[in-house]
Amino acid sequence: MAKIYLEELQAAMSSDIFSRLETDKQEATAVKEKISSFVSTSKETLTGKIYDGYRTQFDTFCTTMDQRIALADNLSSSIKSALQLLIDYMEGDLYLDTARLNEYYNSRTICEKSIERLKQMLNNTAYDANEVRKQISLAEETLAEIKRIIVKLEGLDAVYGQAESILNSAFSGISPFGSSVTAIKPSGIYSYRLT
User: Fold this and answer.
1) How far apart are CA 117 and CA 58, in angstroms?
2) Can you give the pLDDT at residue 189?
3) Distances from the Cα of 102 to the Cαs of 30, 35, 105, 172, in angstroms?
4) Which of 72, 81, 74 is CA-nearest to residue 23?
5) How far apart are CA 92 and CA 192, in angstroms?
């Protein structure tokens, strides 16, 4: 069951998460460029097997920074895409809640029966025909709105599932990135202790 609020989706869309991801991407790019520059320029001045080993580690680090940059890009675009999918689906409705579907089914039935009764009243001269027609018109407008909401609620779980799928796909990149970071081991020459 899905329950979404337009206000919350719009707030998420204007969240600072996107600027933070962009900042992270820019910082990662800057670090990667500095490391790449060092690796490139050090080849002439720092020669030997040990320096080649360090440069290989730096290259691995740069590859991991590429993953970080791509992950930030993917997370940002995926979150925006999922939010926009839901916002577009809402088409201005303030909230949608599939738990209320049965309530709308009942309202539809009540409204349809009311329209039937009103139409029967048209044949009875005891009622003002113009007033009854107005009531029928209002009831038909209400029924059309109820049916519109029912269609939206019946389709909400599928759209919500699409949005979740977009996000899950993006979030699945976090674990491989974490593994890449964990795989980078510092030189055995140094030991680190928390003090």
Assistant:
1) 80
2) 58
3) 55, 60, 5, 36
4) 72
5) 56
Backbone angles phi, psi at 93, to 5 degrees: -65, 140
CA atoms within 13 A of residue 11's CA, in its CB half-sphere: 6
Mutual angle of helices 49-90 and 17-45, in 10-degree steps: 160
Distance CA 111, CA 106 (A): 9
Distance, in Å, from the CA atom of 14 to the CA atom of 170, rounded to the nearest integer, reads 19
Residues 6+ apart with CB under 8 A from 96: 2, 3, 4, 90, 149, 152, 153, 156
Tokens representing 110 are 């009540």
Question: In one letter, which amino acid is 22?
Answer: E
Residues written for the chain: 195
The angle at the Cα of 128, spanning 126 to 133, to the nearest 5 degrees, equals 125
Residue 190, pLDDT > 60, answer no
Mean per-residue pLDDT of the chain: 90
| Domains of the chain (ranges, CATH numbers) | 3-183 (1.20.1270)
